Amino acid sequence: MTDDRHQPTGDDDLPEARSVRSRWPGLVWAIPLAALIIVAFLGVRALTRQGVEVKVTFGNAEGVTPGNTKVLVSGVEAGEVSKVRVSPDGHHVEVTLKLDPREKAALNSNTKFWLIGENPSITDIQSIRAAVAGVIIAMAPGTGGAPQRTFTGLDQPPIVPPDAKGTTYFITSKTGSIQPGASVSYHGLAIGKVVDNGLLGFDHFRMRMFINAPYDRLIKPGAEFWSGSPLKLSLSGASISAGLSSPAAVLQGSVQFELPHDARAGPQVPEGATFTLYDDEQTAEQGPTGPEIAYRMLLNGEAGDLAPNASVSMLGYAVGRVRGAKLRFAPGGKPYTEATIALYPRKLDIDLPDTAPHDDWRTATDRTVSRLLAQGYRVHLVQSPPLVGAHVVQLSADRGATPASLGHDGGLYPLLPVAEGGGGADDLVASANQILQKINRIPIEQIGDNLGKISANIAQISGSGQVRDSIAHLDGTLRQLDAILTEVKPQIGPLMTKLNQTADELHGTAAAARTVLSGEGAMQDRSLPDAIQQIDEMSRSIRSLTDYLGRHPEALIRGKAKEKK
């Protein structure tokens, strides 16, 4: 028997092998592939989170340390310092910052960096806090500039943030007492800052101030600016109150702003306009001064404390200032003081264009001053407050002064005539001497002797025996008169009653007689009306007597007093 399973078959009956390809590499590759994906994810995340690298160059970076010094944007942390090294020039410090990637769009040529806490200031609380906790780098994002990664840090923090909204103006002053950072205030509200202060020429400073929006709309034609005083005194009724400004105002000064009522309807002044900074509010209210016109004066009295910038006043208004005073000697050796003052033309009602030449201002001012001198005005050196204060110059009229004119002795400026005596303490001393001389001419000793004699005479008269007898006799007479009046007074009442009854009866009789006479057919006697009239007069006389005795009972004794003519 044959086994068919081992018999060969034809080609069509043989199995065919096939090759199968799979996209999955197999389980053996799953772990490496997962690790590759994780590494790629971490790398991408690291790249996106590593931040933006920025280099900032500072003149000094004391206190800046990598990893500790933070970068703040509007008070929020936006990065940190990664590296600090000396710049290639050897005079600066190069600081590398790593910033949040979200700050990339704010990095341009207008972006600013500065240090906070490097130079602490009492006027900047944030700098004091940073000096204690550590130096901070502040960043102010810029807008509109070209993209940039390398910057130069500011030496000082900006007074006005780069992105602040407002308007820039200028103010000019004769002094530079207002420091950058000083506040510009309107009725106690800070509306801006003084950005910088520069010298333009002799006694001519120019300050740039930034007024924050929307307060910049208050800056209109006629706006008044003056230097704020750190000490404020107020007189109210019978009390005096004092107040001290903030430490910042004391150290940096302050600018006060006011807009008169008649100027509040005007438009806003364009950016870049220039205003005048006055010394105080009263001077600001008086308006512009015009260019200073100088004059000289010669003083014979004590004037060593006549300080520069002391006021020159007329009728209580400031019309100028003192430029200076020097001790001089006349050819004979007599000392005197030569002082120079500057008058304000516009305060003397001189109206010329601001662009007028200085010679025109000089001519107009000389003409006005000459008119004042013709009216008797003179220069006086007075003390303010009197007796204890420093000397100031005053232009006032002297009684009986003859017309005068400006002097021209070849000096640099015209010469103003000074009141006789020189004014000031010398005049007070002279007046006091005159009073003392008048007092000395009073015969005080003779008056005292006369008073002593009068007192002795009075004492002699009061001690005389005749005087004592006369007083005793007068006292007795008064006692007798009082007794008589006591006896007569009770009898006056009944007497006056009887007199009144008699007057009534006479009046009734007269009335009855008139009735009889008025009857028809009655016999008329021409003598009766006269008799009735006499009865009436008698009745009135009795009543007058009664009234007089009622007022003057003593008339029964002394008789009726004579009437005064």
Essential attributes:
565 residues, alpha/beta, 4 domains, 7-stranded mixed beta sheet, 7-stranded mixed β-barrel
Describe this entry's structure for a reader.
The chain is α/β, with parallel strands linked by helices and 565 residues long. It folds into 4 domains: 49-152, no CATH class; 166-233 and 240-286, no CATH class; 293-437, no CATH class; 479-518 and 527-558. Helices cover 31% and strands 28% of the residues. It has 10 helices and 23 strands. The protein has a 7-stranded mixed beta sheet with strand order 5-6-2-3-4-1-7. The protein has a 7-stranded mixed β-barrel with strand order 8-11-10-9-15-12-16. The protein starts with 29 loop residues before the first helix and ends in a 7-residue tail after the last helix. Residues 520-524 have low confidence and may be disordered.
Secondary-structure blueprint:
Layout: H1 30-49, E1 52-58, E2 70-73, E3 76-86, E4 93-99, E5 112-116, H2 125-133, E6 136-140, E7 150-152, E8 166-173, E9 183-186, E10 189-201, E11 204-212, E12 224-227, E13 231-236, E14 239-244, H3 247-252, E15 254-258, E16 274-278, H4 281-286, E17 293-299, E18 311-314, E19 317-329, E20 335-343, H5 358-374, E21 377-384, E22 390-397, E23 418-423, H6 425-440, H7 444-462, H8 465-518, H9 527-551, H10 555-558
Parallel strand pairs: 1-7, 2-6, 8-16, 9-15, 12-16, 18-22, 21-23
Antiparallel strand pairs: 1-4, 2-3, 3-4, 5-6, 8-11, 9-10, 10-11, 12-15, 13-14, 17-20, 18-19, 19-20, 21-22
Domain Mce/MlaD: 51-113
Subcellular location: Cell inner membrane
Main location: membrane
